[in-house]
Structures are given as C-alpha cells and as structure tokens.
Amino acid sequence: MNADSKVEMNAEVLLGVIGTYIDSPVDHKQESRLLFAKGKGSFLYDYNGKDYIDLVNGKGSIVLGHNDQAVTSAIHTFLEQNGEIVTGPSLPIIELAKRIKTDLALPDSKVSFFTTGTAACRAAVCAARAATGKKIIVSAGYHGWDPMWRSSGEWLTANDEGVVEFYFVPQLLDEVLTKYKGQVALVIFSPDYTYLSAATITKLIEICRMHQVLICCDDVKQGYRHRQGASLELVTDQKADLYIFSKGLSNGQRLSCIVGPDGIMEQTKEYTYTAYYQMLPIVSSLATLEQMELKSGYEKLNVYSQSLIGILRELIGQSLLPIEVNGGPLFQFVFGDEKLEQDFYRESVEQGILLFEGDNQSISLSMDEHVQQIIAGRFANVIDRLTDKHSHLQHVKVSAEQTFQAAWNMIDGASDILPYAEQLKILTKITGE
Fold first, then answer.
1. What is the per-residue pLDDT for 30?
2. How do 353-354 and 51-54 pair as beta strands?
3. Across the chain, what does the average pLDDT equal?
4. What is the CATH number of domain 69-292?
5. Angle of the 280-294 helix axis to the 69-80 helix axis, nearest 10
6. SS3 for 239?
7. How far apart are CA 250 and CA 363, in angstroms?
8. Are strands 330-335 and 323-327 parallel, antiparallel or unpaired?
9. Residue 220 and residue 402: Cα distance in Å, rounded?
10. Which of 48, 66, 157, 175 could crosslink 39 through cysteines, CB 3.0-4.6 Å?
11. 194 pLDDT exceeds 50?
C-alpha cells in the first residue's frame, strides 16, 4: 500500500469514528478533511508531506509554536527522572500555582487545576453557588461546550441551569442584575479586545460592583496569550474575584485553572478527577512561561501580529475586495460577501494556510519576519485568485452589520461598534429571542 492510499484510508476511518466538527476547525468539509502527521514551529505537515502555515494554533493556545524545543526538552527530562506520579502532588504543581498568583498580584488567592477550560468554568460556577447560596449565573461570551450555557430561548431569562445571557451589553447586564436581585451567584464573562472597548469592559465591572455580585473573568481565550497573567489589566485597573486560564499557560497541553480567594476556592476541594496530579501539563506550563519571559514573548507577539496584519491589509487593500482584518494577536477576517468568504477559506487551504473559519486567527512566537514573508507570499496567491474570480465585488464595502455578525461569531456576544438601539435590533434577529 502506498503512502497516498494510507492517507485515504485514514481519512475514511476518521470520518467514520470522529464526530462532525470535533476533530478540527480546519477545513471541516467532509470531502476534504485534513490529517496531520507532525508539526514544528509555524508549520503543520500532512501525511503526504505538504506543509501548512498554522494560523489556528490550537485556537490560540500554541503561543510558542508547535513542539517548541525547550518545552519538549523539559518534558523529556521530567520523564527520564521518573517524575510523572499521578497518585499525588509533586513540587512543580506548587511552583506553577505560586507563579500564577505572583503574575496576578493576588498573594492571598488559591489555585485549583483542571484539564479543560470547560471544566474550570463549570467548577467556578459550582464554587460560586456553594459559597453564596445563590443559583443564578449571568454570562457573556463562550465558556465551553457544556450544555449549561445554552440559551433559554427567552430574552434575558435564565435557562433550566440558571444561566442568563447579557451579551456584553452594559445596559442589559444592569437590567438582568436588577431583575434577579439577590439571586445572582456570579457574573462570568470572557473579555474581548477586538470588538469591545476598554470603557465597555470597565463599565461591566462597575455595574457588577454596584450590584455587589461576584465577578469571574473567563480568561481562557486571552490570559497568558496577550500578556503575562490576566488580560483585564490591559484595559483597566479593576480586578475580578475569580480568574480562569487554560492552555495558553502550557503551549497547548491539557490544563486549566481557577484562581480566587480562599472562601470560594475551598468549595472546589471535592472537584477531583484521576488526572488531577498529572505533571506533564504542569511541566509544559513552567517551561512555556519561562520561554515567554526569556524571549519577551508577549511583547513580540504583539509586534509580530501588528506586522502581519499590516501585510495582510496592504494585500487586501490593493485588491479592492470587501475584506477587513480586525484585531491583534487574535485577529479576524471580515467579509462583505458570503461567496467571497467561502472561496477565501478554500483558497487559503489550497495555498497551504490553515485558518479558523469564521473565527479568530492566532499567531505564535515562531512567526518571525521570515515566516511572515512566507505567509505574505501565500496570501498574495489567495488574493490574486479571489480578485480574478470576484472582480465584480471590487469597491464594495463591508457593512457595520456584517462586522457585527462576524464579531458575534468570534466573541459569542455583541460588539460595541454600533449604538445600543442598533445592537438590540441585530441581537433580536441573531438570537431569535
């Protein structure tokens, strides 16, 4: 059997056993499912040897690049020392917890570890409910696949799990907290810095403080990806009560954590599982944080992203096609035409660029000037093909409503790029509530 037939068989088997959309956000159409054999730095390689520049990067969790040598070496050394003891704790878990507390400047806090952001978010909810004796959870943004976050189908009304959405809109947050006065255990939101202003994020926290409710910053998507520690400090000096971080800590290894005061964190003491003391993600986290510090990683990520975004905007600008690039280390393509968008993602895969379709793209520290030039060349080919095919769209503009819809796909909520009345109008259309 030759290599190609093996790949075809693997793809056939994959489609028969893996749930739709679960295995990869990349080119998930069944007729062209990709299988990856290995990864290094900015590149993934399929079983036929073709390389792809990865702008998905594990949905933003690969901050150093794939299979970073320092992280790999730390794991190898730990295993060679027979350090993997799942039965009980080892020193690295204490070291990592102390490091996180120091980064957050919260010396009196405690840290509880989990394997996924979804699990940590549910644990934070359970702990807040146990600590306050209240049930209602007020939410904005994405907190994992857990069914507890599903909409009730009724405007500003809690679902069967006691969760009610406010969509990042300050006025709606105030309305919900007034409606459920005395019943709210926690307000949890995942901050965004592409479509939400510093003023909006600060206002959300101020409203929570006015209503005297606990705040959880679900920083899975942003924390330890934009900066060392909590991302909120990018825009405000206000602090949350609880913080959730995940695989940005560990360069993609399975890890998450909750950080908060002892009175709440003691409620998590029974939230245990068989992999609680698995050390490989902990070791990976310590090595990742060390590398990011040694290489001024967070500063470089911002520099690299602005450079790459500048290159992309120039290419798109020359084409006159209705495509925009919004954001920073996490950025998003926004389109003025649905068929153009579909062809953009299809052509990108053909040119060896992996993108998170409709969502945020992410860069890693491996994407230096040399890699950016490769990206520029491949995107130039994409844009050339699109310009030939969609020349009738030249000079068409991306509308504010199209940007709002794209932002919804990225942040699972409303952006503040439109006035309040227009936000409500589009929100009603999107949610059907």
1. 47
2. parallel
3. 92
4. 3.40.640.10
5. 140
6. coil
7. 16
8. antiparallel
9. 26
10. 66
11. yes
Q: Which two tokens stand for residue 387?
A: 């310009």
Residue span(s) of the chain under CATH 3.90.1150.10 come to 3-67+297-398
| CA gap 78, 384 in Å, rounded | 49
Q: Coil, strand, or helix at residue 314?
A: helix
Q: Where in the chain is the domain with CATH 3.40.640.10?
A: 69-292
- The angle subtended at Cα 365 by Cα 359 and Cα 369, nearest 5°, is 100
Return d(Cα 209, Cα 58) in angstroms, integer: 34
Closest CA to 268 of 97, 402, 149: 97
The residue-averaged pLDDT of 301-329 equals 96
Contact (CB, 8 A) for 260 and 104: no
Tell me the C-alpha distance between 177 and 179, whole Å.
5
Provide the edge-to-edge strand list for the sheet that holds 43-46. 36-40, 43-46, 51-54, 353-354
Q: 149 CB contacts (<8 Å, ≥6 apart)? A: 139, 142, 143, 161, 163
Q: Judge whether residue 351 has pLDDT over 70.
A: yes
Which of 4-18, 154-168, 293-307, 415-429 shows the lowest mean pLDDT across its residues? Answer: 4-18
Locate 124 and state its tokens. Answer: 């934070």
Residues 233, 88: contact at Cβ < 8 Å? no
DSSP string, 5-52: HHHHHHHHHHHHHSPTTTS-SSS--GGG---EEEEEBTEEEETTS-EE
The closest of 25, 27, 51 to 37, measured between CA atoms, is 51
Among 71, 63, 160, 32, CA closest to 367:
63
Superfamily of domain 3-67+297-398: Aspartate Aminotransferase, domain 1 (3.90.1150.10)
Predicted confidence at residue 11, as pLDDT, reads 58
Amino acid residing at 375? I
How far apart, in whole angstroms, are the C-alpha atoms of residue 322 and residue 340? 9
Is a pLDDT exceeding 70 seen at residue 91?
yes
Using an 8 Å Cβ cutoff, are 282 and 96 in contact?
yes
Give the C-alpha separation, 41 to 72, whole Å. 12
pLDDT at 275: 84
Give the pLDDT mean for 33-58.
93
When pLDDT is averaged across residues 80-106 and rounded to a whole number, the result is 92
The dihedrals phi and psi of 101, each to the nearest 5 degrees, come to -60, -40
Q: Give the integer Cα–Cα distance in Å for 21 and 253.
A: 20
> Is residue 86 within 8 Å of residue 278, measured between CB atoms?
yes
Q: Identify the CA nearest to 370 among candidates 97, 65, 76.
A: 65
| Residue 224 reports pLDDT greater than 50 | yes
